[in-house]
């Protein structure tokens, strides 16, 4: 057997092992970040529960000031939508699918570019005893085989989590700075 054949067989075994490992990864992913903000939930709600307010601190909007966005559906609340197109942050849409005013909002998040994905995003506001609010931002969804394979090389929690952390810091500055 030639050295070339041995190298090819070794490469094939390594690829099969990689594919096998990727197939054992979870069928769903979840990314969540939390931040305590020194503002009451009723002050934060317009910035979290409504898409126009959310876009005042949305880290993805800040990554591309030239993003082309449009609002549709209901003016606010369930059924309100926001769609965007950007060379830097891709193409997609958000739709509010559920709300518990002052406490939580659920959204359907659909990406078209740079890859197709259909996930859920949720924000929750939990008042603290000292008048502040703990804000959590969570995204979760299915992980198909390609996502599982990509996950072997890229840590989704670290990548998206950093953006969530930046966004929550933006929200904190807006709310605590008196501009909310």
Structure, described:
A hairpin with a 3-residue loop joins strand 5 and strand 6 (117-127). The model has no long low-confidence stretch (mean pLDDT 88). The chain has helices spanning 3-23, 41-48, 51-54, 59-63, 145-153, 156-176, and strands spanning 28-37, 68-73, 80-86, 90-100, 104-113, 117-127, 133-142. The protein has one domain: Alpha-D-Glucose-1,6-Bisphosphate, Chain A, domain 4 (2-Layer Sandwich). With 180 residues, it is of the alpha+beta class. It contains 6 helices and 7 strands.
- Domain count: the total is 1
Q: Taking all residues together, what is the mean pLDDT?
A: 88
* Strand order, largest beta sheet: 1-7-6-5-4-3-2
Number of helices: 6
Please compute the radius of gyration using only Cα atoms. Answer: 20 Å
What CATH architecture do you see? Answer: 2-Layer Sandwich
CATH-derived topology: Alpha-D-Glucose-1,6-Bisphosphate, Chain A, domain 4
What series of H and E elements makes up the topology? HEHHHEEEEEEHH
Distance between the termini: 72 Å
Give a quick account of the main beta sheet: strands, pairing sense, barrel closure: 7 strands, antiparallel
Helical residue percent band: 25-40%
CATH superfamily: START domain
Low-pLDDT residue intervals, each spanning 5 or more residues:
none
Total beta-strand segments: 7
Could you say which structural class the secondary elements and strand pairing correspond to?
alpha+beta
CATH class: Alpha Beta
């Amino acid at each position: 057997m030639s050295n070339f054949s041995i190298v090819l067989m070794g490469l094939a075994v390594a690829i099969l092992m990689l594919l096998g490992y990727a197939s054992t990864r979870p069928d769903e992913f979840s990314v969540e970040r939390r931040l305590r903000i020194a503002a009451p939930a009723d002050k934060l709600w317009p910035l979290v529960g409504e898409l126009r307010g959310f876009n005042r601190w949305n880290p993805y909007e800040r990554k591309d000031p030239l993003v082309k966005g449009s609002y549709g559906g209901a003016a606010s609340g369930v059924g309100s939508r926001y769609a965007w197109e950007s060379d830097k942050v891709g193409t997609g849409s958000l739709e509010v699918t559920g709300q518990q005013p002052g406490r939580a909002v659920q959204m359907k998040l659909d990406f078209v570019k740079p890859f197709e994905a259909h996930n859920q995003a949720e924000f929750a506001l939990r008042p603290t005893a000292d008048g502040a609010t703990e804000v959590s931002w969570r995204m979760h969804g299915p992980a198909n085989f390609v996502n599982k394979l990509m996950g072997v090389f890229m840590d989704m929690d670290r990548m998206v989590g950093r953006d969530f952390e930046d966004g929550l810091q933006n929200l904190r500055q807006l709310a605590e700075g008196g501009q909310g």
